């Protein structure tokens, strides 16, 4: 069975690991704390694929998700990585 990169699948929105040095500015712009972000588990297949690119992703890191929609254009959301 051939392996494929889940990040390249047409149904998976773009996932980008937010640099640590930009997290504070982002949270300030959003007017929230990190714990108020929606969560994504470290065991999520997309996070595992990102780890192959970026190295180990520790819980507490923020991931930017960009979704494209025919009706609403582009929607950007952020999630905080949590443990298994």
Q: Helices, strands, pairings?
A:
Layout: E1 14-17, H1 20-30, E2 39-41, H2 45-54, E3 62-69, E4 73-82
Walk me through what this model shows:
With 84 residues, the protein is α+β, with helices and mostly antiparallel strands. The chain has one domain: Eukaryotic RPB6 RNA polymerase subunit (Alpha-Beta Complex), CATH 3.90.940.20. 25% of the residues lie in helices and 30% in strands. It has helices at residues 20-30, 45-54; strands spanning 14-17, 39-41, 62-69, 73-82. It has a 4-stranded mixed β-sheet with strand order 1-3-4-2, covered by helices on one side. A hairpin with a 3-residue loop joins strand 3 and strand 4. The chain is globular. It starts with 13 loop residues before the first strand and ends with a strand.
Keywords:
84 residues, globular, Eukaryotic RPB6 RNA polymerase subunit, 30% strand
Low confidence ranges: none
Number of DSSP-assigned strands:
4
Strand content: 25-35%
Order of neighbouring strands in the sheet with most strands: 1-3-4-2
Q: What is the CATH third-level topology name? A: Eukaryotic RPB6 RNA polymerase subunit
CATH architectural type: Alpha-Beta Complex
Tally of DSSP helical segments? 2
Overall pLDDT: 91
Q: Which superfamily, in CATH terms, is the homologous superfamily?
A: RPB5-like RNA polymerase subunit
Shape: globular
Radius of gyration: 13 Å
Describe the main β-sheet briefly.
4 strands, mixed
Structural class based on helices, strands and sheet pairing: alpha+beta
């Amino acid at each position: 069975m051939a392996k494929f990169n889940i990040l390249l699948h047409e149904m998976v929105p773009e996932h980008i690991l937010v640099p640590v040095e930009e997290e504070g500015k982002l949270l300030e712009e959003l007017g929230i704390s990190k714990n108020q972000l929606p969560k994504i588990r470290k065991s999520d297949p997309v996070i595992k694929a990102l780890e192959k690119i970026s190295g180990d992703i520790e819980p507490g890191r923020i991931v930017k998700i960009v979704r494209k929609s025919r009706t609403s254009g582009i929607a950007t959301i952020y999630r905080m990585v949590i443990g298994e």
